Amino acid sequence: MEKTELKPKAQLDFVGQREGEKLLFVFRHHIIAMRKGFYMLAIPLIITSIPPLIWSYNLELFLLPIVGLLIGIILFAYHFIMWYFTVYIVTDQRIRQVTQRGFFGKDVIELRLSKVQNISYNIPGFSGEMFQFGTIVIQTIVGDLVINKVEHPDKIYNQLQDAVNNAIEKRAKDEDEEIN
Prior knowledge:
- The chain is an alpha+beta fold.
- The protein folds into two domains: 23-29 and 86-179, PH-domain like; 36-80.
- The chain is built from four helices and seven strands.
- It has a four-stranded antiparallel β-sheet. The chain has a three-stranded antiparallel β-sheet with strand order 5-6-7.
- The termini are far apart.
């Protein structure tokens, strides 16, 4: 089995980063979460390839697969943008979920690491084992943050556990210093 490490993002800051906040790592959904985009690429191409196969004497019909491919590429690009720009940013203080909504919209959810009560992960059977994806659930008093189709959920789970433990230790240390 190949050993992969999640590395910190090359850039040292992100939009909305606070003073003194350190970026730990960034992750996104597994590529399998974009399967609808792959279907949207293939289906128009397949459908528009049928008429030239049936009526091969009509040369103009051979342009249809090109049109189908162009439509498929446009639909694929939309799904790719939604997948690529949906990221999870983990710092030494918080988890930030940035979800792309359409071409211009985005939702941002933040969760302080010190408020996390429990983290768990699930790998959904054979396909999850084969393609190495799963679901991570981060539980707080307010509710759960469920992250579906995460690549290498076991590695991200361990890194999240370390980040939460470090945040709790840092908070306890800061409270002790305030008392003294």
